[in-house]
Every structure is written in structure tokens, then in C-alpha cells.
Amino acid sequence: xxxxxxxxxxxxxxxxxQPGTPPSPQEIIExxxxxxxxxxxxxxxxFSTFVxxxxxxxxxxxxxxxxxxxxxxxxxxxxxLDVLAAHQAWLAGHGLLDAGGPERFAFVxxxxxxxQTMLPxxxxxxxxxxxxxxxxYRRWINIKKVFLDSMKKAKTTxxxxxLQALDLELVGTHHRGxxxxxxxxxxxxxxxxxxAKFAITGKLAASHYPELPLELQWGDRVERAFLKKRHxxxxxxxxxxxxxxxxxxxxxxxxxxxxDDDPLAELAPDARxxxxxxxxxxxx
Length: 284
Ligand code: AMP
Ligand code: MG
Ligand code: MG
Fold this sequence. Notes:
This protein is α/β, with parallel strands linked by helices. It folds into two domains: 7-203, Nucleotidyltransferase, domain 5 (2-Layer Sandwich); 206-277, Ubiquitin-like (UB roll) (Roll). It is 31% helix and 20% strand. It has nine helices and twelve strands. It has helices at residues 61-67, 71-75, 80-93, 113-125, 143-150, 159-165, 177-193, 232-243, 262-266; strands at 7-11, 14-15, 28-30, 33-37, 42-47, 106-109, 139-142, 202-203, 212-218, 221-227, 247-252, 271-277. The strands form three sheets. Strands 5-4-1-6-7-8 form a six-stranded mixed sheet. β9 and β10 (221-227) form a beta hairpin. It is globular. The model has no long low-confidence stretch (mean pLDDT 95). One magnesium ion binds next to α7.
């Protein structure tokens, strides 16, 4: 994964809402994105569509007031799973999504809510496990962090405040997803102009991943177990308990050592993990 991306895709969901606590499950009603080349300092393409909520199909007056999204907009829109597939096809059409290949871009959001909270909630509401999402949807760059890093003195980080600090006008309507995307893209371009680096700031928390059945192998012993939290420390702890010996290293079967939590997010159910204990001779 590059330490700094020169292509980003700004994403800003709008969702069902009402004053106070949102409807449960909260659902995405607008799914917009803007591809930005930070190298060429240009917007390359735009993806914009409404999404029809299935659990709470009637928008509150509050929601329409906040977002400008009307009942007829969502009534005529495809449901989430169709929009997600179209979004992936759009990214693939730009050469941005090849399975297994290196990540060519990162999503940029204003805050962590879009990909840390809303997308997992929407996936659950649609019956889609988060592990079915391409990895790129499970990590992101929070523009507020990039802003705070590069504008050393700035404290407030709402989108309007960031625009103001950068001498940019708010274009369009705040809380309309596609307008928010364009404004966030302008903030990103202004920060890139000032030399800001765009590196991943957040990853989907381990608590969002389902429990994982695994085969744990130590020497010629194999035990089946369920990994609850996809952390390397949890895996070593689980194996240490099972084999009554302190495990210090874990390897993908016949593969590389697992040195951080990332490979655990990608593991398939029933994968085999090879363990090395503190007492074993060093693994080669
Ligand atoms: P935003 O990207 O800031 O436009 O917000 C994304 C979503 O968060 C909106 O579509 C709403 O579902 C929710 N939201 C934002 N602001 C409010 C608010 N003041 N009250 C209730 N929900 C809100
Ligand atoms: Mg937003
Ligand atoms: Mg928005």
C-alpha cells in the first residue's frame, strides 16, 4: 500500500435521518463519488446516484430539509446492492479496482462516519457481510486529519470551516452528497497544493468482522477454533490457550508470517494458521 496516494476518490453518503437518533437501520439514500488526481490537480470523473431505502422507505420531512433529497428521488432509485455493484463497476472502468492487485487509490471522507459506521450498517441491513466488500472500502483517509496535519494552527474541522480556512467558497448545498464530494475534493486539492500527504487514516474496526473459524496448527497438532477479534494478539492468545503454551509467531499455512492485523481481515473461513511457540526453535 502506498504511503501517499496521488489518486483519491471522495465519497460522502447521505442517509435516512430525523431529529436526534436516526431510524434503525439507518440506510444510505445518496451514494456519490468524485475521482481526483492529486498529481494533475484535477477532478477526473463523478459518480452520483440516489439509493432507495428498503427498511424505512419514507423520508422524514427533516431529512428532505437537510439533504434536499425528495421522496420521488429515492422512490425512483435502485436499492443499495445494485448501487454498490454499479459503483464498483465504475471504479473498475477507471482501472481502479483489480482484485488482488495493489491499491491504486484510497477513499477520502469528511470524518470517519461514512466507512466506519454507515457502510457496515448498510451492509448489515442489506444482508451483505463486510468481508464481501473489496478491501479498498474498508480503509480510508479522513480529510479532517489531513487538514489538521497540514494546517498546524487550525482547530475546527467541519467542512464549511475547512473551506473557509482555505479561502474557498462552499459550492452547491451542504448535506447534498454530490455537492459535499465536490467541496471535499476542492479541500483535498487545496491541501495537496500546500504539500499535504494523503495516507490511510482509518480502517474498519475488527469488531465489524464476523467471528472466523480457523485451523490452528502447532507442530503436528491441529485444533479448530473461532477467532472472535481479528487482532494478531487475539490469535496468539487463542492459540496459546488451546495448546497450553505461549505462542509468539503465526504464519499463513505454507505462507508468510502474519506480522500485523491486516492479513486477518482478509482470511477466508477455515484457513490454516501455523503457530510457533516461545520454546520452538526459530522458524525459517
Ligand atoms: P453529511 O455528510 O454531513 O451531509 O451527513 C451525512 C448524513 O448524516 C446525513 O445524510 C444525515 O443522515 C446525517 N446528518 C447530518 N447532519 C445531521 C443532523 N444535523 N441531524 C441529523 N442527522 C444528520
Ligand atoms: Mg458527510
Ligand atoms: Mg454529506
